[in-house]
């Protein structure tokens, strides 16, 4: 068997030993066959580009500590509104979870030896130990999207 590719065949950044060291428990290149909400006590990984290319690989063990965040939004007219149109989740990991530039990266759990389960997309951070993500079921539902995994 050959090693998984990191980019297209025309990419000059081939799969090298230095890149292979950043793989986490064989999760690179797994299919996303489902999505689900995250709950307190769950653990996820995230694959933001900046964290990966800065040498932190794919951080896992990010624990959900607040499964249902709402926040206030101030409008131009000075009124304040509580926002809760989608679920936002807070996860923490001591050491490294996220950094600026990871927004849009997938928050996921490892559902089985072959598959990832999408949990959401990275949307914010407080520090490198705390990340926030918008839940995948809300995003998929809002846009009428479905997964189409290929084997």
Plain-language structure description:
By secondary structure, the chain is mainly β. Helix content is 13%, strand content 39%. The protein has three helices and seven strands; from the N terminus they run αββαβββββα. The two termini are 16 Å apart. Residues 1-26 have low confidence and may be disordered.
What string, H for helix and E for strand, traces the elements in order? HEEHEEEEEH
Q: Quick one: how many beta strands?
A: 7
- Content of β-strand: 35-45%
Span between termini: 16 Å
Point out poorly predicted stretches: 1-26
Query: What's the Cα radius of gyration?
Result: 17 Å
Q: Could you report the average pLDDT, rounded to the nearest whole number?
A: 75
Number of helices: 3
Strand sequence of the main sheet, in spatial order? 2-3-4-7-6-5
Task: Write out key terms for the chains shown.
151 residues; globular; 39% strand; mainly beta; disordered N terminus
Topology:
Layout: H1 17-20, E1 31-35, E2 43-46, H2 49-56, E3 62-74, E4 80-92, E5 106-110, E6 115-127, E7 130-135, H3 136-143
Short description:
13% of the residues lie in helices and 39% in strands. The chain is mainly beta and 151 residues long.
